[in-house]
Specification:
mainly alpha, 2 domains, extended
């Protein structure tokens, strides 16, 4: 991976995370099914009290990001595995 590619990926991830954060603030509320309680409520607390996240452990503040990352890695791994089974080659 080149330095240019690494910089591009970092900027892309930052942009996507910003869009997701904006979508949380714009379209979801604390009453949104499933996501409201687990994702939007902590985000609202963060906006009302900026230091709220640092009072928690990293895991308490970022468990949803960890699960999302693991899902993405799992799908990527499954895709690579399935391509190997089907005989696709790069």
């Amino acid at each position: 991976m080149t330095i240019v590619t690494a910089i591009f990926v970092i900027l892309l991830v930052d942009f996507v995370s910003g869009v997701v954060h904006w979508a949380e603030d714009t379209f979801w509320t604390e009453h949104t099914p499933v996501l409201g309680k687990w994702i939007v409520c902590p985000n609202v607390v963060h906006h009302r009290d900026a230091s709220a996240f640092v009072r928690n452990s990293w895991f308490q503040s970022s468990w949803d990001l960890l699960i999302g990352g693991l899902v993405i890695l799992g799908v990527a791994r499954l895709t690579v595995y399935c391509h190997g089974l089907c005989g696709y080659s790069s």
